[in-house]
Amino acid sequence: MVSEMSELKAMTKQLLLNAFGGESMAHMRYLVFAEIAEKEGFPNVARLFKAIAFAEQVHARNHYNVLREYNTDETVSAGTPIGPGSTSKNLELAIRGEEFEVNEMYPVYLEAARYQGVSEAEKSFRFALEAEKIHAKLYREAKEYVDQGRDMPIKGKVWICPVCGHTYIGEEPPERCPICGASRSMYRGF
Amino acid sequence: MVSEMSELKAMTKQLLLNAFGGESMAHMRYLVFAEIAEKEGFPNVARLFKAIAFAEQVHARNHYNVLREYNTDETVSAGTPIGPGSTSKNLELAIRGEEFEVNEMYPVYLEAARYQGVSEAEKSFRFALEAEKIHAKLYREAKEYVDQGRDMPIKGKVWICPVCGHTYIGEEPPERCPICGASRSMYRGF
Ligand SMILES: [Fe+2]
Ligand SMILES: [Fe+2]
Ligand SMILES: [Fe+2]
Ligand SMILES: [Fe+2]
Ligand SMILES: [Fe+2]
Ligand SMILES: [Fe+2]
Predict the structure, then answer these.
(1) The complex's ipTM?
(2) What Pfam families does the entry give (chains A, B) (predicted)?
């Protein structure tokens, strides 16, 4: 294990750090946005924000765990949309963050990890990329409802895979996670 | 409100952003460390990590809220200790992070906000600085127990002020928060 980790390349290490920073901030933004949605009378959108905050926690934890062999202080450079406001505006910020991760950040990070042959980082980036695609879609749906002054309908629960952050709305989680293969019983419902 | 915020100086704005990034990562690290402490059989240390994770959430939310008039994408530069491992090692990382905030980061951020006359930022940095002093002390105490193979004794609960992140161990929270003046009934217990 130690020998495997000592081969972690400097560039990939920095990308893991930046992704840890980005996911930690995404998690935090969604907790702030959930509080505001609750106050504005959109309880299902609040639930969606809380559930996806947990998915981002899964991503942050996965990235951070790849760095386990170190004991150093590092500097992270990561992007964040700013300007919390109404739930409509917050959904706009959320969509922008997710779309950046889907279209720019994770594809490049994934390619870099693959090129440098760091399979643990590649897996962690791939799990995040696949989940973010679903987040972007769900936030776009939520914004359509909120912009009509309505809460988003949620039949059942928002289910999160605690291994990869896969996000699914339904009465029951899928039998197996389509991203990582985890079994139904592992999902956490919100 | 809009006119007040449009006076937010560029330097202070960047420090708020960096502090938002730093607090978001501290929150996330402590959630990761809490899970590990739980598994290692240190339930009270896990509780301490979870409670302080919430205090860092309060700090991150306060910093982020000062930026409410914007609708832009920004880049954050923030430090984080890396290398999650045993609870003893994690407490070492936690102490290092808190001590950096107490001795270097927040005193400088506070001075910059004061110098630029941004009172909302000054308040947000001051709340964090005062709470981090307590965090550093509590983590040092916890590490002494863990390094003897013992869980930290906690009489009562770990209480967090949801306005400023003040952290207090006892049967009851204080009548008034010594940092921000919030009343006893507002505290959240862990
Ligand atoms: Fe994510
Ligand atoms: Fe996401
Ligand atoms: Fe999964
Ligand atoms: Fe803090
Ligand atoms: Fe702290
Ligand atoms: Fe307080």
Answers:
(1) 0.96
(2) Rubrerythrin, RUBY_RBDX
